Amino acid sequence: MSRRGSKPAAITVPRVFALTLIVLVSAALLGPRNVYSIPAFARKYQTSCQTCHVAIPALTPFGEAFRQNGYRFPAGNDAAMTKTPPVSLGAEGYKKLWPQSVWPGEIPGMPPVSILLESTVEYDHATRIVSFASMGGAVEILAAGTLDEHFSFWGGFEFANEAGELVTELGRVNLLVRPLDSPALQFKVGSFEPGLILASNHRSLMDQKLQVLAQAEGDNPWAPEGFQQGLEAYGVLQHRVLYNAGVVEGSGSVGDKSKDVYGRLAYKFGGLPFDGVTSGGAEAALPANPKPWSEKSLAVSGFVYKGEGILTDPTDPPPPPIRDPFQVIGGDLTAIVLDLAARAGYAERKDDRLLAADPTSTDIKIRSQFVELSWVSFPWLVPAGRWESSKVGDEETNRVSFTVNGLARANVRSFLAANWVKEPGGKFTSEGATLGLLLGF
After folding, report:
1. What is the pLDDT of residues 255-314, one digit of tens each?
2. Residue 361: is its pLDDT beyond 80?
3. Segments making up each domain of the chain, as ranges
4. Which CATH code for domain 14-440?
């Protein structure tokens, strides 16, 4: 969830912020011991959240394999591992009568709904003000599951308190189709996170969003995340090759003739393969590793994205649309060595025209890069840090951010985050800090 806030109350004593840190972290670590609520997939399979998560929402290698299988256990083990049986929509014999009958399906045996509750305390370094405006500030409702061996789904809806007003936002909503009995060929239809790089803001332990995925540049509103609307084909070949190819709306208005296209290839050396199928084959249902986040692996990925943005222009009345054809190429890698995970990436973007009011802003190059480290120092304590830079033309902006995550329970995460920014020609300055508590059930 993104950082939010309104004009905060005038609490200017730094000691109040320090006291708030102590109280909230203590509440997370020493709070009620009867927190038994678990997310939808944990209920379905009756397994711990840490089977698939380092800490919500970051995934273990097994959790990534589960995701790449359309929210199913790898190696054909989904039916065997399901503890809450689905409700059948038609007898198995109807398959033999097709097309003279409706192909039988199924729906989850219990509501496939999870809820995420987030509370944060914000500290603005520039004003030295602490804000409680985001305490209990966001609720996200997630629905995800399988409909049978060929269909699965994901949907999200968020309620947030912004400046005293209730704001609702529809997030990623998509249907996943798997024509085969393996993850070799799958389709996403709807709104989704495009498969460009291995890193993701939706599955990150960092409070600060990765700018290469979330930040628009100039007057072109395009950014690959939070989501794109369209169609994506993806799959895993030979267990270790991951591919994605999509056609999406991009930043153009709905109904505009232009569409964006992209493609990505990735390969994983060592560790659990992308599809979760080990040398043990179908017998390997659950990871036997007592540290499911731990392995020795290297995954590399490369992508190309070609789109056309419609520049925003505040002129009233607005002029005819100004188009900005652009192309992005890049890639990233993820290396895991036991309890340490390292990620790094680079992207180079070229825009035909970046600024609506400046016809000379042509052939602008934007270079983005990042390095990120996370360390599972204890199963319940995961610090993470990131450096990233964005260079637009000759002007470079650098960011350094840290997030320390603590698990009170597998589904209760507290975090303390801080970040510093260096604007072009300036020095690193603190933007502030965030203390948060995230509960999923």
Report:
1. 577 899 999 999 999 999 999 988 655 444 555 678 889 999 999 999 999 999 888 776
2. yes
3. 14-440
4. 2.40.160.10
Q: Half-sphere exposure (CA, 13 Å, Cβ side) for 136?
A: 1
Enter the tokens of residue 430: 């603190």
Q: How far apart are CA 394 and CA 33, in angstroms?
A: 54
Give the model confidence (pLDDT) of 132-172 as tens digits: 988 888 899 999 999 988 999 999 889 888 777 888 988 89
Q: What are phi and psi of 233, to 5 degrees?
A: -100, 135
Return the C-alpha torsion angle 428, 429, 431, 436, nearest 10.
70
The tokens for 5 are 């806030």
- Give SS3 for 27: helix
Find out whether the peptide bond into 246 is cis, omega within 30 degrees of 0: no
The answer to whether the peptide bond before residue 321 is cis (omega within 30 degrees of 0) is: no
Identify the residue with better confidence: 12 or 431.
Answer: 431
Local confidence band at 94 (pLDDT 50, 70, 90 cut-offs): confident
Residues 6 or more apart whose CB falls under 8 angstroms from that of 25 comprise: 406, 414, 416, 435
User: Which segments of 137-178 are extended strands (E)?
Assistant: 138-146, 151-162, 165-177
Cα–Cα dist 121/64, whole Å: 31
Q: Of 183, 306, 171, 167, nearest to 228 (Cα)?
A: 171
Query: Residue 327 and residue 245: Cα distance in Å, rounded?
Result: 15
DSSP tag of 339: T
Indicate if the pLDDT at residue 18 is higher than 60: no
**Alpha-carbon distances of 378 from 61, 404, 406, rounded to whole Å:** 18, 12, 9
Transcribe 111-124 into DSSP letters: --EEEEEEEEEEEE
Any residues with CB less than 8 A from the CB of 200 and at least 6 apart, and which? 193, 210, 213, 225
Burial of 420 (0-12, 13-18, 19+ CB in 10 A): middle
Paired tokens of 18 = 């320090």
Give, as one character, the DSSP assignment of residue 297.
Answer: E
pLDDT-derived band at 36, boundaries 50, 70, 90: very low
- The verdict on pTM exceeding 0.90 is no
Selection from 149, 172, 165 nearest residue 86 by Cα: 149
Residues 6 or more apart whose Cβ sits within 8 Å of residue 295:
61, 270, 271, 272, 289, 336, 338
- Give the model confidence (pLDDT) of 303-337 as tens digits: 999 999 888 776 666 667 788 899 999 999 999 99
Query: Could you tell me the two tokens for 158?
Result: 């968020």
